[in-house]
Design goal:
about 10% strand; 6 helices; two-stranded antiparallel ribbon; about 220 residues; transcription regulation; globular; stress response; three-stranded antiparallel beta sheet; about 55% helix; mainly alpha
């Protein structure tokens, strides 16, 4: 398979866990205004990230718009979240229950109702903040992408936003691929989801290299 990010160069590292895959590393540069994290993106990478992040933002906006109108929100300005568990499996992965007891399968109906009520209350209180944080990270990723291709330069704050947004993209793709921990290293050649899995691998290593750059001193 050709390098995911194009022709191999000095800034392109082999993804050893995924033979034949390549991804450009991030370079940490110390400046008077704090560290900067630099890399290069190809046109198809920019287009792919824009498409994936756009779909993610659409899901989050749809979830937010599904929240019922709360009279207290109108009075206090405090946003209330949707108390119901998302029906969409991708949103359920992005916005899981706040509390799941270890012995849930052994609980009686009354105890299960109590767990559901607790999760509903926690969703109503905290989900808007979580959705806003995910949306903000995704938007920062979009805002720092070049128009088509070229150099990337991230501040420490925007690098952390990239890590959060890319992680959400991986979670969303993981639902399509039915990936649970630990993720498989590869899928058979010719598998109908092999392209999606290649993208999942690329996002995983992109995130890993950026984390390593942030940790470097």
């Amino acid at each position: 398979m050709p390098p995911v990010c194009g022709r191999r160069c000095s800034r392109t590292g082999e993804v050893r866990r995924y033979p034949g895959s390549f991804v450009r590393k991030w370079k940490r540069v110390e400046t008077a205004n704090g560290p900067r994290f630099r890399s290069v993106v190809a046109p198809h990478e920019v287009a792919l990230l824009k498409h994936l992040v756009g779909a993610l933002l659409g899901l989050l906006n749809e979830r937010e718009s599904s929240s019922p109108l709360d009279e207290l929100e109108v009075i206090t300005g405090i946003k209330a979240g949707n108390a119901q568990r998302p029906e969409d499996p991708t949103l359920r992965r992005l916005l899981p229950d706040f509390y799941t007891p270890d012995d849930k399968d052994q609980l009686d109906p009354a105890a299960l109702d109590a767990v559901d009520s607790l999760n509903a209350a926690l969703r109503s209180l905290h989900e808007p903040e979580i959705v806003d944080a995910k949306r903000s990270a995704a938007q920062q990723l979009l805002d720092t992408l070049p128009e088509s291709d070229g150099r990337l330069e991230l501040t420490e704050a925007s690098a952390n936003a990239w890590i959060a947004a890319v992680n959400d993209l991986r979670l969303a793709l993981g639902v399509i691929l039915e990936i649970d921990r630990p993720a498989p290293e590869r899928v058979p050649a010719g598998h109908p989801l092999s392209v999606h899995f290649d993208v999942y691998q690329w996002l995983t290593v992109l995130q890993e290299y950026l984390v390593l750059a942030l940790m470097a001193t």
